[in-house]
Amino acid sequence: MGNGPSRVAACLVFAVVAPEVVAAPAEQVAGLAPHRAVYDISLVEALPGAGISELTGRMVYELTGSECAGYTQKMRFVTSSTNQEGDVSITDLRTSTWENSTGDRFRFDNSQYRDQRRVEQTVGEAVRGKNPGGVRVELTKPKKRVLKIPAHVMFPVQHSRHMLELARKGETVFSVDLYDASERGEKVYSTSAYIAPRREPGFNKSLPPAENGEVLDELVSWPVALSYYEQGSEKEDALPVYEISFIFFENGVSRRLYIDYGNFSIRGELKNLTMLEPEQCKTTKKQ
So what's the pLDDT on residue 236? Predict the structure, then answer.
């Protein structure tokens, strides 16, 4: 998913031609397979100051697109939580992002609802400049604003693709600054991932059964622990804002999610997996 809560590489060539639709080469989409995954969410632990005594929910994550069309991520994360006084609150987080495959453009539209009332919405676009350039973020909601962030910052799909590449090479540590449009689009996190040794094909069979989950049986995977820090903090001493751990399969599907927010932690168990077709690309053919 990589991870939660986000590219147009144009495949159109202009000439005196008629358009033809062709599938992207298989190797271009091998790293991130379009899919829809449904996870059941449960509370693992809550400290006394967390204000939570019970929590249940469901998360639906969907990745569509392809190398040429860019990648769209959609997530809906609904939880019902009960505090110590017995009051129940429903939180509904909905995100929709798009990135081009070169990591130059990132569009986002994120909303949060509480008890069926929208309390927050963040809409905007981040564009990576050239020579040398930074990243220009234009926010349209909650209010119009322009931000500049460093050029080395990665976007979410770009981050996942790079982490998979390092995992395949046997690398164990991946640290980078990440912009995912959280915190009203104004936040850049410093992240640090630890990638454990790969699990060989068949490891998925040891995990709890999930509908259509057997498509992962013949794939390799890696346990990953990903920590998010405030920028400027010293990671050796600072506590992360939150931590995520998961099993990351070579096609980009995640299982055995665990999210630690510090004062409470939750688990996400895969219940249903649907593999989707890559989005087709438009190219041209001379008549």
Answer: 61
Read off the pLDDT of residues 171-194 as tens digits, 9 standing for 90 and up: 999 999 999 998 899 999 999 999
Rounded to whole angstroms, the Cα distance separating 96 from 74 reads: 4
Tell me the C-alpha distance between 256 and 208, whole Å: 9
Residue 29's φ and ψ, nearest 5 degrees, are -110, 5
Q: What is the pLDDT, as a whole number, of residue 8? A: 25
Q: Token pair 């249903």 is at which residue? A: 272
Mean per-residue pLDDT over the chain, rounded: 86
Structure tokens at 206: 């040891």
Beta bridge partners of 139: 124, 145
- pLDDT digit string, tens, across residues 126-173: 999 876 679 999 999 999 999 999 999 999 999 999 999 999 999 999
Question: Strand runs (DSSP E) across the chain, as ranges?
Answer: 17-22, 35-46, 54-66, 70-82, 88-99, 105-114, 117-128, 135-141, 145-149, 173-178, 189-195, 221-230, 242-249, 254-260, 264-275, 281-286
Question: In 3D, which of 266, 227, 273 has the Cα closest to residue 249?
Answer: 273
The answer for residues whose C-beta is within 8 angstroms of residue 42's C-beta and 6 or more apart is 55, 56, 57, 266, 267, 269
Count of CB atoms situated within 10 Å of the CB of 178:
20
Residues 61-98 as b/e (b if ≥16 CB within 10 A, e otherwise) read bbbbbbbbbbbbbbbebbbebbeeeeeeeebbbbbbbb
